[in-house]
Amino acid sequence: MNLGRTLLFSPGDHSRRVERVLASSAATVVLDLEDGVADGEAKARGRATIAHALSTTDRAKVFVRVNATGTADHAADLDALGPVLGRTTGIILPKVESREEITVLAARLGEFERVAGSAPGSLKVVPVIETCAGLLVAPEIAASVRVAGLIFGALDLAAELAVSPISGLDHTRAQVAVAARAAGLRGPIDGPHPDLDDDDGLAETSLASRALGFSGRVVLHPRQIDIVERAYTPTTDEILRARQIVQASESNAGSLRLPDGTFVDRPVVARAQALLAEVGE
């Protein structure tokens, strides 16, 4: 499944913010019941607000981030939203640390589908890899039933490792990218840039993330959408290069060398074809 290049989050207990994100140009919208919403009364208000919003919107690619497995709020989230989950694409599940968590959630989603008369397997799950324990089993999580993609929770993982979320996590980002691709998924979605006012930093770190195999990023404000979209979109030079590689391969069945000396064989051609497919060619 293609989640797109931008996942715009909104706290679920703010009705106006929920309305704004649902009307935004983000590829995917996530209505949040976890970290973006305070405990207690705010969680209950968030469930009611999200349930109402889902019952009235026709927007495609809408997810709900519920609370982590094993918490009382997780069970309450599913109980409250079950009747309207058929109007979503699925669930963002935070702090995933085992394949079993996905299996249990998948069974519950199957119950909701049966009651609603939805197609089996139509509700998807996007786990967030944001703890050291989750990182160690990321390949198993990525290969679980219903998983449509992975999100890299940079801020939580950086806090656990006591490193910078900007410069200290490249090795773990690479691990998550490998786990996603090994499971046949698209490149994972990176976490948000921590400084909302740092547009240059947002662009720079998004380009670096794309270079590590990520396909998009979480955004926390609509004004970040265009910056992130540009960063993860193939450039004109990349597209022209891919066309050159594909055209050269069509005239030569084996490996070849381009005029600039670059050696081209099947993996290089496959990458060029994938890039062109990404831009609709």
SSE inventory with pairings:
Blueprint: E1 6-11, H1 15-22, E2 28-32, H2 41-56, E3 62-65, H3 72-81, E4 90-93, H4 99-116, E5 124-129, H5 132-136, H6 138-142, E6 151-152, H7 154-161, H8 170-182, E7 189-190, H9 199-211, E8 216-219, H10 225-232, H11 236-250, E9 256-257, E10 263-264, H12 266-278
Parallel strand pairs: 1-2, 1-8, 2-3, 3-4, 4-5, 5-6, 7-8
Antiparallel strand pairs: 9-10
Helix pairs in contact: 2-3, 9-10, 11-12
Mean pLDDT: 93
Count of helices? Answer: 12
* Unreliable stretches covering 5 or more consecutive residues: none
- Multimeric organization: single chain
DSSP, total strands: 10
Shape by Cα distribution: globular
CATH fold topology of the largest domain: TIM Barrel
- Rg, Cα atoms, Å: 20 Å
Helix content: 40-55%
> What portion of the residues fall into strands of 2 or more residues?
5-15%
**Strand line-up across the major sheet:** 6-5-4-3-2-1-8-7
Short description:
With 281 residues, the chain is an alpha/beta fold.
Account of the protein in words:
This protein has two domains: 228 residues, Alpha-Beta Barrel (TIM Barrel), CATH 3.20.20; 42 residues, no CATH class. 47% of the residues lie in helices and 13% in strands. It contains twelve helices and ten strands. The strands form two sheets. Strands 6-5-4-3-2-1-8-7 form an eight-stranded parallel sheet. Strands 9-10 form a two-stranded antiparallel ribbon. α2 packs parallel to α3, α9 runs parallel beside α10 and α11 crosses α12.
